[in-house]
Design a protein that fits this description.
Blueprint: E1 4-5, E2 9-14, H1 18-29, E3 34-37, E4 52-54, H2 55-60, E5 71-75, E6 77-81, E7 87-91, E8 97-100, H3 102-116, E9 119-121, E10 126-132, E11 135-141, E12 145-154, H4 161-165, E13 176-184, E14 194-198, E15 208-212, E16 218-224, H5 229-239, H6 243-246, E17 252-261, E18 270-271, E19 274-276, H7 292-312, H8 317-347, H9 350-362, H10 365-368, H11 378-385, H12 389-405
């Protein structure tokens, strides 16, 4: 088959998830011609995320309020359970998070990008990077077409095949957790604006979640760093003293599986003519596995650096390294804190989880957290609450547990 070559574009983006579409939007707003290639025939399908996101961060990015059909629910409380059923509750002064219909949210961002001038190519698989003289100069499509571009941006998600072609290290696979996400048709005795969270051996290396909707349906899922997540979900449904009552008689309507990188952003997400944004660059919170906000944030940074590089007429790694520096300046403090917190959480036995949750109840840690708004930048959040007496006591207690668990 003869190779065909399209007209050169300024920027090619691989993947039309939220990070890819938002990067395309920001590029289009800067007047940069952008083509985005998505292998699936419809944006937002399949879904790979529960869509539980901070309202504060959405506002900062200009995405709140959203159209009513995208917002499924808002939350001002959370209940945390140990495997034996010990409970700790946080009641916030106002709604801090919301759950989104991820398909509609992804499509909303893509539609904005289209209206701004970005061109989407659906049902079009990128086969490989097009590399000449150690520069990424576009992509090769599955139909043997070459798409030349000045800069290529990889937002492919959890896969790392283009990172490796760009001779960059992917994320640390030891930090992966494997998630199962379901939708169920009913829940019982669950407050409508409260998220239920299941800790410890219910979901080793991560946690389980129940995110209710006002119509009585819910998102139920968990992730784990070893074993089959489906087996852990079955145990949660049938054996957890709280969860089994909450989902008794419920039917699973839909099931999705995906992996989540928790080891922190990769150390280098750029090379000559190339940048990586979002999950593929492990721009994900190590504590909760949320990647949407970090992906959008780094997508905006990437767009600004593309503008800089094109204005200079220099798309070398030296120029594009500004992307890495700006992302690191934005994320590193909070990610470093969250990595240590993730290590601490993973060190706790089920018995320790009982002790921790009882301690939090006894010393009114919930009161210290009641005015929290920003849950994405958790290092800064902790600095905000750390001076409160209950948190000072709690941090001392947690610090001792951490030292004993990690001598």
């Amino acid at each position: 088959m003869m190779r065909q070559e399209k007209q050169q574009t300024n920027t090619v983006i691989i993947g039309a998830g939220p990070a890819g579409s938002y990067t395309a939007l920001r590029l289009a707003m800067l007047g940069i011609k952008t083509d985005i290639y998505e292998e699936h025939p419809e944006i937002g399908i399949p879904t790979h995320c529960a869509g539980h996101i901070s309202i504060h961060s959405l506002k900062k990015l200009g995405y709140y309020p959203l159209p009513k059909e995208i917002i499924e629910n808002t939350f001002n409380a959370a209940n945390f359970y140990s495997p034996s059923g010990t409970k700790f509750s946080i009641q916030l002064k106002k709604s801090v998070t919301c759950s989104l219909n991820r398909t509609k949210f992804d499509q909303h961002i893509a539609n904005q990008a289209k209206q701004a001038g970005a061109t989407f190519h659906l049902n079009t698989r990128v086969q490989s990077l097009h590399i000449e003289n150690n520069y990424i100069k576009g992509v090769n499509l599955q139909d043997n077409t070459i798409v030349p571009s000045k800069i290529t941006i990889d937002t492919e998600g959890i896969s790392s095949r283009f990172l490796h072609q760009a001779k960059l290290m992917g994320f640390d696979r030891k930090g992966l957790v494997y998630a199962v996400e379901t939708e169920i048709n009913q829940v019982h005795d669950v407050e409508p604006h409260t998220v239920e969270v299941y800790m410890g051996s219910s979901a080793p290396g991560f946690y389980g979640w129940l995110i209710p909707r006002p119509d009585g349906t819910a998102k139920l899922g968990l992730a784990t760093n070893h074993g089959n997540p489906q087996n852990y979900l079955k145990n949660l449904i049938t054996k957890h003293p709280i969860a089994k009552k909450q989902v008794k008689g419920a039917k699973i309507i839909k099931t999705n599986y995906h992996a989540i990188p928790l080891a922190g952003p990769i150390s280098k997400a750029y090379s000559n003519g190339f940048m990586a944004v979002g999950d593929v660059a492990s721009q994900v919170k190590p504590t909760t596995g949320g990647g949407v906000i970090f992906g959008l944030t780094c997508g905006e940074i990437a767009a600004n650096v593309v503008k800089l590089a094109l204005d200079l007429g220099d798309v070398s790694a030296k120029t594009l390294s500004a992307y890495q520096k700006r992302c690191d300046d934005t994320l590193n403090f909070d990610v470093s804190f969250m990595l240590r917190l993730r290590q601490f959480l993973n060190s706790l036995s089920d018995e320790r989880w009982d002790s921790v949750l009882r301690f939090c109840n006894r010393f009114n840690v919930d009161k210290a957290l009641s005015d929290v708004e920003d849950i994405d930048y958790q290092g800064k959040m902790m600095m905000h609450v750390a001076t409160k007496p209950a948190m000072l006591v709690a941090l001392g207690y947690f610090g001792l547990l951490y030292l004993f668990a990690n001598p």
